[in-house]
Inverse folding.
């Protein structure tokens, strides 16, 4: 009997490759391509120092994604908790063995490689939460007792990252966790209470000076950019000028005067959307956003079509992280969100984030490839 | 195990429903982003296009020149000089390391310095210029200018830097400036000030008057628009619309830089018996009429120019670890037992207690009190002496006899009346009070030890010769000499004028003391130098400038019987740090006092041998110049050329 009518059976690698979601791969590659083009332009028409490396990293990360997709999703399910706790331990150790960079301890050395436990946690938290909800019946999800473990699972890493201090990543993780819990079926009442509690906590943090001065400044500047036109608000103002002067069809490839004039800092990372928007205009920027939206909807449809509950929630988590990146970054450069240092996925220069994103889509892809597999709540295989 | 059935249709249904909701929410957010894009790029396109045009102009801060610090006749003690330096705009250089490598080939950039530059870039952000090297020679500066086309992001610049033309001479008065720290930024009241302080190479006062008068010396920033080309280089400066910076106010001091220089030289001359020992010493000269401090000298001293460019760590270590404490402002912060110089106070206090100066005492060389002998410095004794003779010969036994009945509180009150045990408003931090002990002081000092709290009369015997608990600073001793000489509560000052504002001389109220009490002290002090007293060698021959003085030798270490057994009984045999301090206070002219002086030579052994001659040499120079007879600088006449300067 063929594996088509015997779900859960091992498939050959070639068979699996044919089951990859090729449209999704094409969409992701389009985004990465936009990244290469923009980085080439930022470097005033040079492959160095960013564009070439970005393209090569994408190819490597794509390989990683396919590799992850080849592994049956149930194996990843078995590894979910170990991955989560490994990331949590690394995160807890970072204050003691981490490298200080830009005033924050975020990196640790591991076998000669630098790695950022907070990035690993973006994957770990998604897997851990999905694994947890896989073991719950529908009516248990909204039971207050069953809510305690996931709240702790989210709260511990968020707290650790917050004190690093990395407000942006902490908020991103917290929001991702909240979305998974929401999609898993938490009742509206409890969800609403949680949101109100979060708002109260944020206000408390502001009132009692838990936030660092620069964090408060960023939020205040976000609310009123004119407040500090030569300091924090400078980036935002320059960013809006660059975007706005781009107009309907942009100034053209490599013609962006604002970004080329170096009025903008960090053009190759956090503010890259600005250059893209300046050079390719409203048409180009909307086009890029539509490709992002297509990726997100593809992800959501994969989540709905896969049988395994763990796979569904993992996919939701990865797509949620990706979506938050896009929304926060674009919102930030247009003055809709505070400048918190979140890159534009697959376009911004930076290896770690690209790896995280593509590894995440590896799980999504694995969920798609193995969409017919199902398992017991305990994690034992059905077949 | 909760359930074996993985298929949970209800659960799947919820997830599907919520996923659809999520998709709807995401769509809404994207619509919001799209709407914002529309607003910026279509609706407000015109506005931002205009702004983009203007963006090619940048506001540039023009740093003001720091106010000068000048001496009483206008001689600059702290000024500004041209500083050839190079700045780097990190975001234009792109690869900062490579840029630094290239610069290193012309002027070395140490690893240390490189780390500091990197830190600064991280702190200030990529678009603020940072200083890479300064105080370059003209040759190196030209070479870098020549290489400029290959050095992206490098800006050559002619800045101004603080200069201390007199180097170490007035280091302790002026202090020094240093680089701006985060704490400095946080302490600023306005954003404008913060922007000014963030200018590359900007310095703020760190010590001394530079620090105290930071606000007055700093000046006000100006601003200028500059036009920038596609590479970020300035192509045009909008000079017409520029707001020029305003130089900081000039600080005019009471110091006489000639006399200050002379005093520093005199203090540095090694003692005749210890030619190898550096002189760790302090000297203060005060105008007794105005309270103006003419000399405030301390040796060895640091050179403030070393601090100004960022001190070399090795030098800093040496300065900190030297036993001669070159970083200690000895006239204000050094505390020493005043020794026999204190006897002028004791003599006044004794008269206040009812003693007649004509009363005599017999000195056999020592006196028994309580359970031990108190020795006179002269082992054979002085014989019979009255008060004037006791001062002239600095007889200890004479004062021991007084101390047997003298109330310590009266002695302390007299000491305070004449300027000891207090600090003065000079604008220099770190001033020490010293200790003038009385009953209350002892109660507090021994708060944890009730047995020691009552005052023992034997302790008065130590205090009356300026030993025991009594300590003072050289500044206090100079004030004491001035007050004894005039009978007025002379208050010392260091700053004569801030900007155009001339400060009035502080009020010197008469001290509530019978003038006859002072006369005998004056006579005694005159005898010390001019009638073959303890400092006969320090006599000034010029009859117009007769100097009256008092020697002091304060014990640091008591030579024990064991030491004597080991053949060690002269102070010269002791290690430097255990030798006695040498002190001398004086005033002149004797008949009509104008200047008072104190000299302390740390571990100099004898007041008459080590301190007196130095005081004489300083006072001779003072007499020769007689600064009080010359018209001091009128600050309103200072030329104030506006000197706009860009950074």
């Amino acid at each position: 009997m063929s594996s088509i009518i015997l779900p859960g059976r091992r498939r050959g690698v070639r068979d699996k490759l044919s089951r990859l979601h090729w449209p999704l791969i094409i969409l992701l590659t389009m985004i990465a391509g936009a990244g290469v083009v923009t980085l080439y332009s930022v470097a005033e028409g040079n492959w160095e120092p960013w564009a070439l490396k970005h393209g090569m990293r994408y190819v490597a990360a794509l390989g990683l994604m396919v590799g992850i997709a080849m592994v049956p999703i149930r194996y990843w399910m078995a590894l979910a908790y170990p991955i989560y706790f490994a990331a949590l331990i690394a995160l807890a150790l970072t204050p003691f063995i981490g490298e200080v960079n830009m005033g924050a301890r975020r990196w640790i050395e591991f076998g000669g490689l630098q790695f950022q436990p907070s990035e690993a946690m973006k994957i770990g938290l998604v897997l851990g939460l999905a694994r947890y909800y896989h073991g719950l019946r529908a009516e248990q999800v909204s039971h207050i007792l069953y809510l305690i473990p996931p709240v702790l699972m989210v709260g511990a890493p968020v707290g650790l990252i917050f004190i690093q201090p990395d407000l942006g990543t902490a908020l991103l993780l917290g929001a991702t966790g909240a979305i998974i819990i929401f999609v898993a079926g938490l009742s509206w009442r409890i969800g609403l209470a949680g949101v109100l509690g979060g708002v109260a906590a944020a206000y408390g943090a502001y009132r009692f000076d838990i936030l660092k001065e620069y964090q408060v400044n960023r939020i205040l500047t976000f609310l009123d950019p004119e407040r500090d036109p030569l300091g924090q608000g400078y980036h935002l103002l320059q960013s809006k000028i660059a975007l706005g002067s781009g107009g309907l069809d942009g100034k053209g490839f490599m013609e962006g005067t604002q970004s080329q004039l170096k009025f903008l800092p960090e053009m190759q990372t956090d503010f890259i959307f600005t250059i893209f928007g300046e050079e390719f205009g409203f048409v180009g920027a909307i086009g890029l956003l539509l490709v992002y939206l297509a990726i997100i909807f593809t992800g959501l449809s994969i989540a709905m079509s896969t049988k395994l509950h763990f796979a569904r929630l993992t996919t939701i988590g990865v797509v949620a992280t990706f979506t938050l990146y896009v929304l926060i970054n674009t919102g930030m450069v247009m003055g809709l969100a505070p400048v918190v240092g979140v890159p534009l996925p697959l376009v911004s220069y930076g290896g770690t984030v690209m790896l995280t994103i593509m590894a995440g889509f590896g799980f999504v892809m694995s969920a798609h490839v193995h969409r017919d597999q199902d398992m017991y709540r305990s994690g034992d295989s059905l077949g | 195990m909760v359930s074996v059935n993985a298929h949970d249709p209800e659960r799947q249904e919820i997830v599907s429903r919520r996923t659809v909701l999520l998709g709807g929410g995401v769509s809404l957010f994207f619509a919001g982003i799209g709407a914002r894009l529309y607003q910026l790029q279509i609706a407000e396109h015109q506005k931002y296009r205009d702004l983009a045009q203007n963006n090619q102009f940048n506001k540039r801060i023009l740093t003001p020149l720091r106010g000068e610090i000048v001496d009483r006749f206008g001689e600059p003690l702290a000024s500004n000089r041209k500083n050839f330096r190079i700045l780097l705009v990190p975001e234009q250089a792109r690869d900062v390391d490579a840029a630094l490598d290239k610069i290193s080939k012309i002027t070395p950039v140490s690893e240390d310095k490189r780390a500091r530059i990197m830190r600064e870039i991280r702190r200030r952000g990529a678009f603020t210029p940072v200083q890479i090297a300064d105080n370059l020679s003209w040759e190196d500066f030209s070479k870098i200018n020549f290489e400029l086309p290959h050095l992206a992001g490098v800006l050559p610049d002619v800045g101004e830097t603080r200069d201390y033309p007199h180097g170490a001479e007035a280091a302790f008065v002026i202090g020094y400036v240093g680089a701006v720290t985060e704490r400095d930024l946080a302490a600023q009241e306005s954003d404008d000030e913060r922007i000014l302080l963030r200018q590359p190479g900007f310095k703020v006062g760190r010590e001394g008057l530079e620090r105290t008068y930071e606000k007055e010396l700093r000046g006000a920033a100006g601003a200028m628009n500059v036009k920038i080309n596609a590479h970020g280089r300035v192509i045009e400066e909008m000079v017409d619309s520029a707001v020029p910076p305003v130089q900081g106010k000039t600080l005019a001091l009471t110091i006489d830089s000639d006399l200050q220089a002379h005093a520093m030289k005199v203090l540095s001359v090694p003692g005749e018996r210890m030619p190898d020992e550096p002189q760790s010493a302090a000297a203060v000269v005060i105008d007794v009429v105005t309270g103006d401090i003419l000399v405030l000298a301390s040796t060895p001293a640091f050179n403030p120019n070393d601090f100004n460019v960022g001190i070399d760590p090795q030098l800093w270590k040496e300065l900190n670890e030297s036993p001669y404490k070159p970083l200690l402002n000895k006239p204000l912060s050094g505390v020493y037992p005043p020794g026999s110089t204190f006897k002028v106070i004791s003599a006044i206090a004794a008269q206040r207690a009812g003693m007649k100066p004509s009363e005599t005492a017999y000195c056999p060389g020592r006196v028994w009190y309580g359970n031990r002998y108190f020795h006179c410095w002269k082992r054979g004794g002085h014989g019979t002496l009255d008060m004037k003779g006791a001062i002239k010969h600095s007889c200890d036994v004479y004062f021991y006899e007084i101390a047997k009945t003298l109330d310590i509180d009266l002695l302390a009150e007299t000491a305070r009346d004449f300027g000891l045990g207090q600090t003065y408003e000079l604008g220099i931090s770190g001033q020490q009070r010293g200790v003038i002990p009385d009953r209350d002081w002892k109660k507090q000092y021994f708060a944890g030890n009730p047995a020691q709290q009552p005052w023992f009369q034997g302790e008065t015997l130590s205090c009356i010769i300026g030993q025991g608990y009594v300590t003072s600073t050289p500044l206090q001793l100079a004030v004491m000499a001035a007050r004894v000489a005039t009978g007025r509560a002379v208050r010392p000052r260091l700053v004569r004028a801030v900007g155009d504002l001339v400060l009035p001389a502080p009020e010197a109220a008469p001290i509530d003391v019978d003038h006859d009490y002072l006369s005998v002290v004056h006579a005694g002090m005159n005898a010390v130098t001019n009638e073959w007293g303890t400092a006969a060698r320090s006599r000034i021959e010029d009859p117009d400038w007769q100097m009256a003085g008092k020697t002091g030798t304060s014990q640091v270490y008591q030579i024990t019987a064991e030491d004597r057994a080991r053949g060690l009984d002269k102070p010269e045999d002791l290690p430097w740090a255990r030798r006695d301090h040498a002190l001398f206070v004086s005033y002149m002219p004797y008949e009509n006092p104008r200047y008072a002086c104190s000299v302390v030579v740390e571990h100099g052994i004898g007041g008459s041998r080590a301190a007196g001659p130095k005081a004489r040499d300083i006072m001779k120079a003072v007499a020769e110049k007689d600064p009080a007879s010359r018209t001091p600088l009128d600050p309103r006449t200072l030329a104030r050329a506006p000197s706009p300067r860009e950074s």
Observations:
- Strands of chain A lie at 99-101, 104-110, 113-115.
- Chain A touches chain B through 67 residues (CB under 8 Å).
